[in-house]
Amino acid sequence: MSKNLKLTLIILVAFQVLVSAGFELAHDEAYYWLYSKNLAWGYFDHPPFVAWTIKAFSFLPHSEWAIRLGFIVLQFGTLLILLRLIADKFRWLATALFFAFPLASFTGLLALPDMPLLFMTAVYLWCLKNYLEEDQSKNIVLMGISIPALLYAKYHGILIVFFTLVALPKLLKRKSFYLVALLSIVLFFPHIWWQYEHNFSTLRYHFLERPSSSFSLARSADFLLVQLILSGLLVSPVVWWTSLKNKSADDFERVLKTIAAGTILFFLFSSFSKKTEANWTISLAIPLILLTLKSEIWEKKLWRNLAYASALICILARLVFVFSPETLRFRRLAEFHGWKEWAKTVQANCEGRPILANTYQVASKLSFYLNQEIPSLNYQSRRNQFDVWRFDLSYTDQNVCYVTNKSQFPGADLISPDGRVLKVVTEIDLKSLQDKVYRDRSN
After folding, report:
1. Torsion 198-203-205-208 (CA) sign
2. Claim to verify: residue 301 and residue 247 sit in the same structural domain
3. What are 177-227's pLDDT values in tens digits?
4. Total of domains in the chain
5. Residues spanned by the domain of 377
6. Residue finishing a domain among 322, 346, 373
7. How far is 443 from 440, CA to CA, in rounded Å?
8. Given Cys at both, which of 104, 115, 170, 375 links 71, Cβ 3.0 to 4.6 Å?
């Protein structure tokens, strides 16, 4: 790696850390911070890698940047692994393309499971490349570790492994592959056991409880359009075209192509009956960059400049998070501003009584900004990790304060920073509230 590229990456890391300190946590970031305070082999919504990443930097001061620092490290770790997979002459272009992919670029700024998935995708592909080239003990062990780590990052990692086998079914003829599989199962078993102990709650939620929708061609078209934008911003059509048009040079490229095409087709099919999230395909950044780099089209000044321009746009766009929603007139930013003071207002209104909330988002935000575990009693809202934790069982006070979005509860209205009308029930009997919530749960 050249000195100029190293210096550029150091500046980008510093810039990322500074920006990450300039705005408050998203709802899910606060939720995952609670994961890290209560480490386990699994959680209702996700596997535990996101919690491990936050926990690794828990020795730092209680702050937003400390929560996000591990994800910044993973982002630049991902890039460094990517650079190890390519020739020196492609490294500047690969760096530009990496930051030109909006999800790969922005996800390192937020404490979400997507960055661990992207990181482990890069690690897995590096291990796979070595394993395909040399069937040695070291590579067998590394493959056996990378697969469960990929699944611990996010369940979507199973698609990476599945499409690897679709591309190379001959792996099933390798005796060493079964050692890889055995080691992977052993290392992933703690999470399987956690699911068993919790009635496979995560799988039931994702496959059975999430709502289905009627067929919508518009929803599927939106999915494809968003995916096109996310694959390199100004150069995304070129990235996809050059990645898929040429014949694979070797087994590794065949795997990369199958992962890229297979993942898009899988989620396109899913979009026929369910809402899909843009971030579900974040792992495609690595295979697409590796595939497109060798194309001669990047020798043309126009396309190289557009790649660098795309990266610059995505990097500077981080500054949007620092501004208030009123400044930019962008309401989505309300999730990142005003919650610290709002939490103090809730605490004052509750007049010293223990606080509970009706949704995991509000409970998580209050927990982080009051620096204490606030239970969520989820009345008429979806199940989540608070149903596993049951923090409310540790409360000995009979009278509690309940922050809820349900109008049937008596209480003063309090507008949240993101515009939700919430009620602060300053005094309610805990036992009757628990009975009401869990009677609703059983119906």
Report:
1. negative
2. yes
3. 999 999 999 999 999 999 999 988 888 877 666 666 666 787 888 889 999
4. 2
5. 338-442
6. 322
7. 5
8. 115
Tokens 């670029």 sit on residue: 105
17-41 in b/e form (b: 16+ CB < 10 A) is eebbeebbbbbbbbbbbbbbeeeeb
Q: Is 371 part of a structural domain of the chain?
A: yes
**Same domain assignment for residues 434 and 368:** yes
**Under 8 Å between Cβ of 357 and 403:** yes
- Kind and range of the H or E element at 355? strand 355-357
Side-by-side strand order, sheet with 412-415: 355-357, 399-404, 421-429, 412-415
Q: Judge whether 218 and 267 are in contact, CB under 8 Å.
A: no
Identify any residues that bridge with 421 across adjacent strands, giving them in sequence order: 415
Which two structure tokens, joined as six digits, stand for 243?
């990645």
Helix (H, G, I), strand (E, B) or coil at 402: strand
Name residue 356's beta-bridge partners.
Answer: 402
* Same domain flag for 349 and 311: no
User: For residue 331, is it within any domain?
Assistant: no
Question: Is residue 332 a part of any domain in this protein?
Answer: no
d(CA 36, CA 130): 33
Looking at the chain, the whole-number percentage of residues with pLDDT higher than 90 is: 74
Do 192 and 231 form a contact (C-beta atoms < 8 A)?
A: no
Same domain as 349, residue 316 = no
**Element holding 423 (H helix, E strand):** strand 421-429
Extract the tokens encoding 77: 């770790």
Q: Residue 75's pLDDT is what?
A: 97
Whether residue 168 is predicted with pLDDT greater than 80 in this model: the reply is: yes
pTM value > 0.85: yes
